[in-house]
Amino acid sequence: MSHIEAIGHQLAEKLKKYSADYIEVHLEESQASHISYRGRELESIGRSTAIGGNVRALVRGGWGFTSFNNLDGLGDKIELAIKQAKAAGNEKSKLAEVAPVVDIVPAGIETDPVTIPLAQKKRLLDEYNEVIWQTPKLKTSVIGYADSYQKTVFASSLGSYIEQERADISLRLSAVAAANGEVQQANLSLGSRGDFGQVQRLHQPVQQMARHAVALLSAPQVKGGEYTVVLDPVLAGVFVHEAFGHLSESDFVYENDRLLKIMTLGKQFGSSELNIVDNAAMPGLRGSYKYDDEGVPSSKSYLIREGRLVGRLHSRETAAKMRERPTGNARAVNYNYPPIVRMSNTYIEPGSVSFDDMLSDIKQGIYAKNWYGGTTSMEMFTFSAGEAYMIRNGRVAEAIRPVMLTGNVFSTLKNIDAIGDDLAMNQGGGCGKGAQVPLPVANGSPHIRIQHCLVGGT
Amino acid sequence: MLEILEQARKVAQQAEVFTVSSEETPVQFEANRLKHIQSKQASYRALRLIKQGRIGYAVTTKLGGGRSLVDMALETAQFGQPATFDFPPPTAYPQIKTYDPEIESVTLEEMIRLGQELIDMVRDYSRDIVCEAGVTKSVISVSIINSQGGQANYQRSVFGLDIEGSLIRGTDMLFVGDSESSCHPFLQAKSVARRVLTQLEWAQNRASAATKTLPVIFTPHGVASALMPALMTAFNGKTVLEGASPIGSRLGETVFDNKLWLWDDATLAYRPASRPCDDEGIPSRRTALIEAGKVANFLYDLRTAALAQTKSTGNGSRGRGSLPTPSPNAFIIAPGETAFEDMVQDIGEGLVIEYLMVAEQGNILGGDFSGNILLGYKIESGKIVGRVKDTMVSGNIYQLLKQVVAVGSDARWLGGSLKVPSIYCPGLSVASK
Fold first, then answer.
1. Partner residue facing B171 (CB), from A48, A185, A379
2. What is the number of structural domains in chain A?
3. Contacts A41 to B, Cβ<8 Å
4. What is the pLDDT of residues B149-195, one digit of tens each?
5. Per-residue pLDDT tens for A33-79?
6. A386: distance to nearest CA of chain B, Å?
7. Chain A contact for B67 (CB, 8 A cutoff)
8. Which of A140, A247, B107, B266 is the most exposed place for a label (fewest CB within 10 A)?
């Protein structure tokens, strides 16, 4: 039994004895390694270990929270969290009912990626870097690899005791090409739930990425304006996560009547073909888990079904306050923060339109692929695609410089008029909300077509 | 620390131990009400060593167990960067005040009152505004010790106040917000509230911008969101060393308008970005970056300075747990002589940009930027007439800053590490839906 398990077991017994409406304790132990390159040179290589935890207490609707690296004197830390909660509380505590859970959830992988020798990881990255540098006109490359293995213990005054283990791997590669004062780049980012095999044997996509960066140097820039745009599964997945998913996080709406009015269940947001889901219970993805950080079992939640808003993501508190079913979406990026409402694996369900059919009646449009950057502010979004091509007379035509897409979330969802049959999940993303970043998530979608999308240009 | 340093010296030629401990108390308001009170204690220790000419590195939050930290660092040293520098020997540090003991006596009740007062002042404008606010106090202790005899430690207090308000009408959403921070505790919310109220007043009416080139005033927030990220990258010695900075080969040349002065300064008393030395133990200083439009210097840490055959400017910073890398301490643009109101009066048709939602795109290093105006206003006949929405702007920061009409006299701190005035530019490409 490890250190945190022993402490967790001792505590679990005691939590019911304190005078608070609810108390939970998180303990966490983790190991990690990372390697990064800038250009041909290794920039940073390092290893780390961490141990820490937190106590969260609820009294009269107010939350107290203490986090720490030193696990000594946990009794005092619990007392402090209760004292803080009492000072913050000013109403009745509300938490959705859930059954207490006692469970042990293994990581479900054969090899902990942190234990794979650094030499082996470095050899793989060296190969990828060599592939990038074999491309002519290449200015520089950037590579970042990181892995981690984490064990968490959760105990609550409800009587829950859950141990969960998980591993995570992320890999990002960029190729930067330059000529005549022009700089262009292409990126590849992916991840896995600890399976090192998924970041191996990528030599071919890495080569394509580098060649694309060079090709962009001579690609024309599109004229700004409204276009019919087809998004690939990666970009559509980020769109659904960023532009719609965050609006479904109930902590934004549960105490904001006006926002709630916009997000009224039953309201039509898109065509009857549109179905949007968040599903942490889907196994094996970076956003997958069995229990969230409040000990609530994960679930598949429809957010939009046949175009109508039918659900949203909840913590126990937001579910109780909105009188809805808890969905198991309270997550914390690590023990330094309390759990808040987050997405897990979010995707648009596949429709029936083939990619070729989607293109066939577009006389002139844009095919935007891959994600580069962007932000949303609930109502508005601004994204840049990593790759873009003109669509001419029903076919993907010449490459153009990466485009920026912008618009109003609500009108853009309504303007989705074709949903492909080729759902693919992307694992390269890390989600940020407040200071809690990067949280492992997966996004996905089939190809989708959007009418009247505003594209930035010259 | 000494024990780990000793263990590391037995197996490596040089070693450095960096330890941080912090205690933070955030008080958070949600939907206009007090919601969370937190207490966060955190610490970590990083070991950097040089073995057979290579850097090894490891980090842990376990301040006790030294053996595994040394072992982990040794494993990485087989592959690490070539060591191009020595850890610094004993040095005299400037006396910089960064700790105000008053912070210890600020009570939770006072922090709660301050946050509530700020929310009440903002909601006096309209009861429909929903506010999130935070009041935070923290104390951080840093110590560095290395095998060459270098040694430094300091303590810093930081007090901060921030607010974000949303005002929603139908599906029209307006977000406003501001913040303030200092090493001194401060218990009045007026200045933050006043700035938020100004945003609300200016955004009260709707206006529309034409699709064309218009004169633009970037407020301090506008300068921070649209222009500063590219400048910070361009003045970073690492970008220069990689040959990727557009100003890297232009030291001493006039690249910007001669009204522009920019420097980095970690020596100002009681500012949250100040400290006697950087995260490698190099004394803090003020480094001129733009002097009357001329490129004056770049920012370096030990490693990039060695590779560039120059000296560290005291800009070695570690993100949580990572190796030091050059990064700005506090970027400061000198205020000009023109009042903000006078800039507005000077414009027949134009925009004020307060917050720009920037989407990173291809040629960022070259200074290109574009984005959607999250909060901005239309100027007609010398007056702010209302908020603009669904409006994109795009431009190049080097073209914009080559010739500015005026630099505002309104320079102010935004968060702990940026102090900038408004900047009035003659023309920016605007596209509106």
1. A379
2. 2
3. 81
4. 999 999 999 999 999 999 998 888 999 999 999 999 999 999 999 99
5. 999 999 998 999 999 999 999 999 999 999 999 999 999 999 999 99
6. 9
7. no
8. B107
Nearest CA in chain A to B28: A88
| Structure ipTM | 0.92
Q: Which of B129, B102, B255, B264 is nearest to B199 (CA)?
A: B129
Residue A413's domain comprises 225-456
CB atoms A404 and B359 under 8 Å: yes
Question: Rounded to an integer, what distance in angstroms lies between the CA atom of residue B230 and that of residue B248?
Answer: 13
- Read off the pLDDT of each residue in A267-284 and give the average, rounded to a whole number: 97
Backbone angles phi, psi at B172, to 5 degrees: -85, 120
Looking at the partner chain, which of B171, B365, B433 has a beta carbon nearest the beta carbon of A454?
Answer: B433
Cβ-Cβ pairs closer than 8 A, A with B, add up to 206
pLDDT above 60 (res B362):
no
Q: Looking at the structure, tell me whether residues A229 and A304 fall in a common domain.
A: yes
B39, B72, B323 ranked by CB distance to A66: nearest: B39
Q: What is the pLDDT of residue B293?
A: 98
In this structure, are A338 and A253 located in the same domain?
yes
B230 at interface of A, judged by CB pairs closer than 8 A:
no
**Which percentage of chain A shows pLDDT scores above 90?**
80
Instruction: Judge if A52 and A125 occupy the same domain.
Output: yes
CB contact under 8 A, A41 and B108: no
Q: A198 and A229: one domain?
A: no
From the CA atom positions of chain A, what is the Rg in Å?
A: 24
E strands, B246-293, where? 262-265, 286-291
Taking the C-alpha atoms of residue A313 and residue A200, their distance in angstroms, rounded to an integer, is: 34
Give SS3 for A370: strand
Closest residue in A to B31 (Cα) is A255
The half-sphere exposure of B4 on its side-chain side, counting CA atoms within 13 A, is 30
Provide the 3-class DSSP secondary structure of residue B235.
Answer: coil
Per-residue pLDDT, averaged over A283-296, amounts to 96
Compute the average pLDDT of residues B370-387: 95
Residue B105 DSSP one-character state: G
Q: What is the pLDDT of residue A378?
A: 82
Listed residues A164, A198, A217: the one ending a domain: A217
* Per-residue pLDDT band at A281 (split at 50, 70, 90): very high
Retrieve residue A334's tokens. Answer: 């690590």
Q: Do residue B321 and residue A401 have CB atoms under 8 angstroms apart?
A: no
Q: Are residues A285 and A264 in the same domain?
A: yes
Q: Are residues A209 and A95 in the same domain?
A: yes
Buried b (16+ CB within 10 A) or exposed e, B226-258: bbbebbbbbbbbbbbbbebbbbbeeeeeebbbe
Tell me the per-residue pLDDT of B206-240, one tens digit each, with 9 for 90 and over.
Answer: 999 988 999 999 999 999 999 998 999 999 999 99
Question: Between the CA atoms of A9, A161, B42 and B102, what dihedral angle is there, to the nearest 10 degrees?
Answer: -100
Q: How far is A276 from chain B (nearest CA, A)?
A: 21
Is B66 touching A (CB cutoff 8 A)? no
pLDDT of residue B361: 59
Mean residue pLDDT of chain B comes to 94
Domain spanning B2-200: which superfamily?
PmbA/TldD superfamily (3.30.2290.10)
pLDDT value of position A372: 82
My answer on whether A132 and A67 are in the same domain is yes
Spatial contact of A111 and A196, defined as CB atoms under 8 Å apart: yes
Please answer yes or no on whether B81 and A183 come within 8 Å at the CB atom.
no
- Residue B377: both structure tokens together: 């206003």
A180 and A78 assigned to the same domain: yes
Shortest distance between the Cα of A82 and any Cα of chain B, in A, equals 10
Indicate yes or no: CB of B244 within 8 angstroms of CB of A183. yes
> Looking at CA atoms only, how far is residue A205 from chain B in angstroms?
20
- For residue A1, is pLDDT > 70? no
Lowest mean pLDDT among A360-369, A418-427, B58-67: B58-67
Q: Cβ A69–B61 below 8 Å, yes or no?
A: yes
